[in-house]
Fold this protein.
Amino acid sequence: MAEAGLSIPEWMRKKPIDAGVSRNGRRRRTSVVERTISGLSEALRSSIFSERIAARPGLLQRIDPRIKILGFLTLLIAIGLIHSPFILLGLYAGTVLLAAMSRISPGYFVKRVWLFIPLFTGVIVLPSLFNIIRPGDPLVTLWDFGRDVHLGPWLLGDSLAVTRQGATGAVIFVLRVAASVSLAVLLTLSTRWPDLLKALRVFHVPRVFVLIISMTYRYIFLLLGLATDMFTARRSRLAGVSTPREDRRFVTGSMGALLGKSQALGEEVYAAMVSRGYSGEPRTLNRFSLAGRDLVFAACVAILAVAVIGGDRIIG
Amino acid sequence: MHIPDGYISPQTAGGLWALMVPVWYTAGYKAKRLLKARQAPLVAIGAAFTFVIMMFNIPVPGGTTGHAIGGTLVAVVLGPWTAVIALTVALVIQALFFGDGGLLALGANCLNIGFAMPVAGYYVYRVFSLGAAPGSARQWLAAGVGAYAGINVAAFLTAVQIGIQGDFFQTAAGAALYSPYGLSQAVPAMMAAHLTLVGFVEAAVTSLVVLYLQRTNPGLLLAAAESKKARAGGQRLKPLAIGLLLMIVFVPLGLLASAPAWGEWGPEEIREELGFIPEGMERFAGLWSGILPDYALPGDGGEPWAGVAAYVFSAILGLGIVSLLTYVIVRLTAGKDVRK
């Protein structure tokens, strides 16, 4: 039928934006669709990976999740209260040791922590090293202006220098963030998520909330799948170049569509729950029991917390 | 905007946790009634939705991409208190499982993103969409305005929490213990980014999604409004009133900071900083001194309590004037397209 007059339309012959090369041959950024797909699948991948680590037989994996949460919160507060960079460094080293003892590869653990927040923190903290942002005693003078310099209403001072206070503050800040983030990552990696959620009951988090959190966690993966499907479908239909305006419409449109799907799903799930006997009061199995090693762990944490805070006050 | 652990002191973090307890209690109380109905899975799925859309890349004019948080959007669709729970749940999961935002800082993040953002955004949306027909342009515009307000309120609170670290927590030698920037640096930096760019991204996303819903799924936008209308009229303003009351109580906290707000120097302070007063400023500064100059009551003898009382009084007066103006504006504009 259409064998003779068929010709490929002009817009289909253009290279799609995802080819990584623009028409004038320069590399260009990957498209919004592409980047969102990779972000979504990265979230899926990393949480599956975490679950696998949590199932290994390591030191932290064997500790009762309730004790582990309480212990880690105590340590987080201790880390928050410490002033000495040396003690902070020691505590950070301790988290790497704990990771190794919990069969988490130290290389992976260090990379996972540092690629994330401390590096970003390091960039944020940079300006505060200088005396024009945060006053202090000059440690290294970079540029002596020779006279007071004004920038509009601001008095910049007579030199640009890295201050002792700025450097100390930056080291303390980055180490503190690294140690805190390491602890949080350890908790996530060493605990299976249903256990982590059930352990929230220690804090008297109402059962309904725990139910909602656990349902949310499940639905996140469902919605991540749905969103990935929408974006993949869009990508596979994409011939030619889409403008940012079109992309914006697509992204917000898919948010709206996702919202509609979520709503419909919510109704169906509720109907399914009611027909299985849900009466508004969720029930959970409680299979936690404290063992000797949990008490030893708790004691170690308490002693460590007191020791580091005490030691910190003695050092000054 | 998620604050990681280590950025704020445990003292601040603890205080903000304590501040969130009554909020969660209220939200839980309201939600219990909702949960008896068919909303438990809806809240869960709403939270999952919030989580997922935070991962969507939005193309921003200029070639980069940004993220939206969607706090106001969720509040517009689910109602403010359900949104508080949904966002809290999303934040808990982000902190516990994905390392986004700290565990100690969770109270702070829940206050900023989980409470201030949806509630502020929602009530601004309500005010601007008062009497607007469902599906009208004013509805999606109001959602955008609400989102802009919501994210900026959240950003401001975040900046204040981070800024007090630089000002108040340092070693004896003056080295910062937590985030090193003071209020005068953190607040302008944060607000410059949010007032100019991030706020508009959030507003545009919210408006476009509401616009999409108006065309394809108008029932979703009606659901929250209908359930609101079914309840008593006066009750719906109660949470707003409580929030404002709390803010009035907290206003004198500003007295703790001795320096004047950034950009709000009086002529005397400018003389101290600059060594001179710009001529034009001196000329106009005296023209209007306000009814209560420097928020002081007439006959203020300088006792500390008098300062606090004057501040609270000024806050009430200011709020009253703003409310009155808003009411008048809404009355004037509402007459044009009242729903049948």
About this structure: Chain B has two domains: 10-230, 237-340. Chain B touches chain A through 77 residues (CB under 8 Å). The first strand of chain B starts at residue 58 and ends at 59. The longest helix of chain B spans residues 183-216.
